[in-house]
Amino acid sequence: MNQSESSSSADPINPCPICLGLVKQEAYLDRCFHRFCYNCISQWATFVATQHSHSQSTLKCPICKSDNSSIIYGCDGDSFQRHYINHDLGNRFSLSEAHKYRLRCYYSESGAICKKFDVLQYWKRQRYLQPNKWLQSWLRREFQVLTQEEDVDIIVHHIHGLVESFMRRKEKERSKSTPEQNQQEFKTAVSDAARPFFTERTERFVNEIELFLASGLNIEAYDKVYLECLGLNAPDATSKGAEVHEQTQQVLYFHLFDEDSDNGD
Questions:
Q1: InterPro entries per the record (predicted)?
Q2: Are residues 104 and 191 in the same domain?
Q3: Which DSSP letter does residue 94 get?
Q4: What residues contact residue 183 under an 8 Å CB cut-off, 6+ apart?
Q5: Within a 13 Å sphere around the CA of 211, how many CA atoms are in the beta-carbon half?
Q6: Maximum distance among all alpha carbons in the chain?
Q7: Which of 91, 106, 129 is the last residue of a domain?
Q8: Distance between CA atoms of residues 118 and 214, nearest Å
Q9: 60 with 103, same domain?
Q10: Reading across the β-sheet that carries 81-84, which strands appear in turn?
C-alpha cells in the first residue's frame, strides 16, 4: 500500500467526491485543491473533453466549478507529478535524479547555501557584468522542475532574455545606481516575469537564480556545494534527463569569476 492509499484509508469521512469511496492515489486540482482519486478525476477530465468540439485547457472542478489547469498527483514529500488538462496523459514528463534533487531544494530552507556565497559582493564588484554561459542550461532544468514539463523553451528564452537585457543596460549605466538598488531592480524584474509561471514559488526561484549567478560556478560544481549543504549525495550525472551537465563535465570546479578582474572594493 502506498503512502496516499494509507493516509486515505484513515480518513473515511472525506471520501472521493466522484466515486464516494476511499481516496486511492490522491490527486488535487491545482487552483481549488479539491481532492479526488487520480483515476476518478482523470476520467472526469476525459468525459468533459468529449463534450466539447475544441480542446480545453482548463477543467471545471466538479465540486466548486472553479477553472483548473492541471491535476497534481504522486506527492511523496519531495516531488509530485502534474498532468495539464490539454495534454495527453500518456506523455508525462519523467523527472531525472537531478530534477528530483532540485525539486527537493525548493522544499528545503535556503539558509545554509546562502552562507556559502556572498551575494552582495556579486553586486558590489559588478560581477553581474560578466556573462554566465551556464545560465540557460540551469534555467531549463529549474523550469522543468517547477512546471513538471519537458518543453520549457519559451519560458527559458523569456527569462534568459530578460536577464541578458538587464545586464546590458546596467553595463551602460554603471555608476547610476547603488549595488543594493541594482540587486532589488534585478529581483523585481525577474519576479514580475516569472510569477505567471511559478505563482507562490516565484520568490524562491528569484533567490535561487541570484545564488547561482553569484556563485560563479558551473552547474556540476554548484550542485555539489548545494548538496553538501543539504547533507545529500550528488545525483548520478548519467541518469536520464541529466543532459544539463554535459557542458560542465570536463571541469568540476570551474569558477567564472577572476578575482583580479573585480570592479570596486
A1: Znf_C3HC4_RING-type, Znf_RING, Znf_RING/FYVE/PHD, Znf_RING_CS
A2: yes
A3: P
A4: 119, 120, 123, 210
A5: 21
A6: 68
A7: 91
A8: 7
A9: no
A10: 35-37, 26-29, 70-73, 81-84
87 and 109 together in one domain: no
Instruction: Using a cut of 0.70, tell me whether the model's pTM lies above it.
Output: no
Task: Give 73-106 pLDDT, tens digit per residue.
Answer: 888 766 678 888 865 544 456 778 888 888 888 8
- CATH, residue 56: 3.30.40.10
The pLDDT tens digits for 189-230 are 999 999 888 878 899 999 999 999 999 999 999 999 888 887
One domain for residues 161 and 187: yes
DSSP character for 92?
P
Chain centroid to Cα 224, Å, comes to 18
Which residue, among 255, 219, 263, 256, has the nearest Cα to 102 in the 3D structure? 219
Question: Is residue 20's pLDDT more than 80?
Answer: yes
**Counted domains in the chain:** 2
- What SS3 string covers 228-250? HHHCCCCCCCCCCCCHHHHHHCC
CA distances to 74, 90, 251 from 59, in Å = 19, 18, 47
Compute the distance between CA of residue 45 and CA of residue 42 in angstroms, rounded to an integer. Answer: 5
